[in-house]
Automatic annotation (TrEMBL), chain A:
Lineage, broadest ranks: Bacteria, Pseudomonadati, Pseudomonadota, Alphaproteobacteria, Rhodobacterales
TM segment ranges: none
Subcellular location: Periplasm
Pfam name, any one: SBP_bac_1
SUPFAM superfamilies, A to Z: Periplasmic binding protein-like II (SSF53850)
Protein name: Sorbitol/mannitol transport system substrate-binding protein
Major subcellular site: periplasm
Keywords: Signal
InterPro entries: Bact_solute-bd_prot1, SBP
Signal peptide annotation: 1-23
TrEMBL record, chain B:
PANTHER family named among the record's database cross-references: INNER MEMBRANE ABC TRANSPORTER PERMEASE PROTEIN YCJP, MALTOSE TRANSPORT SYSTEM PERMEASE-RELATED
Topology in the lipid bilayer: Multi-pass membrane protein
Annotated protein name in UniProt: Sorbitol/mannitol transport system permease protein
Gene Ontology CC terms: plasma membrane
Length: 438, 274
């Protein structure tokens, strides 16, 4: 009997000692932006509440991260337990069964997620990723310059209004340019902006038979007006400017109007980094007269769990915590409401403290709520996605078209030639990919 | 007979050389200067006088531990170089002193593998690494970087070995030296300058390699290339922090290059003037 007791006691001791060894390690792949870096700093409450879960972070630049996790997930490598991906990848990867459904997250208020964001991360009503933060696009403009020039920009401006305001604010002698827009080629750079602008002009990438539409009047009007505004009132070298370059120009007081992601609002109104922080106004993404469409730009950095994860339950616990209301409140307590992850939860925008701390909150919410990624154009389309087309081929064709349009902005070709080149390239690629029969 | 060069010409060429050198070095210099600025100063525009704050270095170290990627970089760069030399010295000996009709073709074929974009073989190599347990290990990176740099190492050593008279090796053989003794005790000591410059160049190439070292690692074996990649931000301007991270990543290799520049220049220009 004594032997049995000793054996049992020994077994218990071994089991107890081996508990730490059973701790699961989550490898989390993420991008390097302010919100994600803050999350890495603020995981103490999570690891204290879940001592059996350890967190390993892999932080990479956006394009490298995309390349890295795509290779891993496509080869079923299983190197990561949590992925930071955008709403471009979510529907594509979910359809390949590469992601775990997240409809059963523990104690998770998914009803509080803003409907356009939740829809963009769902396939057939099932959530496959949860949003960490989300953004749309809007107009940011210098109220002091507008006042000095005697122009006003309405809350919901048309492109004609934007053009007139840009003209009035331009003072090239003092290096003040009326309008700054993305020109750097890339599917996530100039084509994000130009696709949203095209949506607001009533254009579309493809008709219901997947025939490219760059030979349409709407695309012609979009590109012609974009080039005209940028060459007349834009900064020099605009074909090299992406989000960060325009952010720098705006913060230095060199742009009258900047139309870009809503996340920029928090940067340009930050007195520590912006010289124009106290004179920035906001307006909805413009539309062309008679077209009821404000671009439908919607991007969300979201947390997803690959089907190859060997710790799916621990990963679900983590993503539920990182995108919860409790996490938002923890950020607000530590760094102020202004730094709370934006664009994902209705409750944040109902919070009076947040509204007070973030003067751009109302316009951001308005922009996100008006974004329809399920039908981005006023015409019939066979695809989803707002400032992109949610098909695997878009990264390639988007960048190829972006190069044509950027070359036109640099003065190397006309708008007509750029559109003809885009039509030809996209037709070829879509035929090769089997969307169009030969 | 050497042509007489006037003092004026010498001064002109010296100034021109300095201007070109400064132009080439300026981006690195400006990165170092920016690393000592605040973020606000960094985005404010061109300015060569920083406020000499160490704030960015502190933030970089807080955000990502520097020691682990640094250690990984040293092990991977030195390990892959030594392994490459062990494989390449006998190969280059064979090609230099016992050539066949196919030697030139083999050399060209080896070099041609460098012309293929690395991404073309990413998926097969990724799968091999997954199935052999080499993923995210230092030994895996040592092997892949050795393989990637091997053609250059063989080519460089072959060029140096060809400058050594074959008669000396024949004499060693006549004195009864075995093949191994001939390579280790006769050839290698004579080719030390060439081997040293090959070693240095290969360490630099391996240190700066930023495709395989990022694709085949996650956390354990990630070197300084992954460390830098984690500071490049798609949204938001963190140039001072990025510059500090870059400076920390390139400082060791710059210091090594500075102290070994004589050997590097000598090795790289070996046989260039006859």
């Amino acid at each position: 009997m004594a032997h049995i007791t000793r054996a049992l006691a020994g077994a218990c001791a071994v089991t107890a000692l081996s508990v730490p060894a059973l701790a699961e390690t989550l490898t989390i792949a993420t991008v390097n932006n302010g919100d994600m870096i803050r999350m890495q700093r603020m995981t103490a409450p999570f690891t204290e509440a879940n001592p059996d879960i350890e967190l390993d972070w892999v932080t990479l630049e956006e394009n490298i991260l995309r390349e890295r996790v795509t290779t891993d997930i496509a080869t079923r490598g299983g190197q990561y337990d949590v992925l930071t991906i955008g709403n471009y990848e979510v529907p594509i990867w979910a359809n390949q069964d590469w992601l775990l459904p997240l409809s059963d997250l523990p104690d998770y208020d998914s009803e509080d997620l803003l409907p356009p964001v939740r829809d963009a991360l769902s396939v057939d009503g099932t959530l496959y990723a949860v949003p960490f933060y989300a953004e749309s696009a809007m107009v940011m403009y210098r109220t002091d310059l507008a006042e000095a020039a005697g122009v006003t920009i309405s809350d919901s401006p048309t492109w004609a209004e934007i053009r007139a305001a840009a003209e009035a604010m331009t003072n090239k002698d003092e290096e003040v340019y009326g309008i700054c827009l993305r020109g750097k080629p890339g599917w996530g750079e100039n084509m994000a902006f130009l696709t949203a602008m095209a949506n607001s002009y009533g254009a579309r990438w493809f008709d219901p038979d997947w025939q490219p539409q760059f030979d349409s009047e709407e695309w012609n009007a979009t590109l012609t007006d974009y080039l005209d505004m940028m060459t007349s009132y834009g900064p020099p070298g605009a074909s090299s400017n992406g989000f960060n370059e325009n952010l720098s120009l705006f913060q230095q007081g060199k742009c009258g109007i900047w139309i870009d992601a809503t996340i920029a609002a928090s940067f340009v109104t930050d007195p520590e980094n912006s010289t124009v922080a106290d004179s920035v106004g906001f307006a909805q993404f413009p539309n062309k007269e008679g077209v009821d469409n404000h671009g439908n730009w919607l991007w969300s950095w979201s947390l997803a769990i690959p089907a190859t994860s060997d710790a799916p339950e621990a990963a679900k616990t983590f993503v539920a915590w990182a995108t919860s209301k409790a996490y938002t409140e923890a950020v607000a307590e530590a760094d102020g409401w202004r730094n709370a992850p934006a664009g994902t939860r209705a409750s944040l925008y109902e919070n009076a403290e947040y509204q007070e701390a973030a003067p751009f909150a109302e316009m951001t919410l308005n922009a996100i709520e008006s974004a329809n990624t399920q039908k981005a154009s006023v015409q019939d389309i066979p695809y989803t996605g707002g400032q992109f087309v949610a098909i695997p081929e878009f990264q390639g064709i988007g960048t190829s078209v972006g190069q044509q349009f950027s070359a036109a902005l640099a003065g190397q070709m006309s708008a007509e030639d750029a559109l003809a080149g885009a039509q030809s390239n996209v037709t070829r690629e879509m035929t090769r990919a089997g969307y169009i029969s030969r | 007979m050497a042509r007489a060069v006037s003092t004026q010409t010498k001064i002109g060429w010296t100034i021109a050389a300095w201007v070109v050198a400064l132009l080439i070095f300026f981006p690195i210099l400006y990165t170092v200067i920016t690393s000592f600025k605040t973020e606000q100063e960094a985005i404010a525009g061109f300015d060569l006088i920083p406020s000499f704050t160490l704030q960015s270095y502190g933030e970089v170290q807080t955000q990502n531990d520097y020691i682990r990627p640094f250690t990984n970089s040293v092990i991977i760069a030195v390990g892959s170089t030594i392994l490459a030399l062990i494989v390449a010295i006998p190969a280059a000996w064979a090609m230099a002193f016992a050539p066949t009709k196919q030697t030139k073709n083999i050399l060209m074929w080896m070099l041609s593998t460098k012309m293929m974009p690395a991404v073309a073989v990413l998926v097969p190599i990724y799968l091999i690494f997954l199935n052999t347990g080499l993923m995210d290990t230092r030994i895996g990176l040592v092997i892949i970087l050795m393989l990637m740099n091997l053609p250059i190492v063989v080519w460089m050593l072959y060029t140096y070995f060809r400058e050594i008279p074959g008669e000396i090796l024949e004499a060693a053989r006549m004195d009864g030296a075995t093949l191994g003794q001939e390579i280790v005790h006769v050839l290698t000591p004579m080719a030390v300058p060439g081997i040293a410059s090959t070693l240095l160049l290969n360490i630099i190439l391996a240190w700066n390699e930023a495709f395989w070292t990022i694709q085949l690692t996650t956390t354990n074996a990630a070197p300084l290339s992954a460390f830098i990649a984690s500071f490049s931000s798609p949204q938001g301007l963190f140039w001072a922090k990025l510059s500090a991270a870059s400076t920390m990543a390139i400082a060791p290799i710059l210091i090594m290059g500075w102290f070994s520049q004589k050997q590097l220049v000598r090795g790289l220009t070996f046989g260039a003037v006859k």
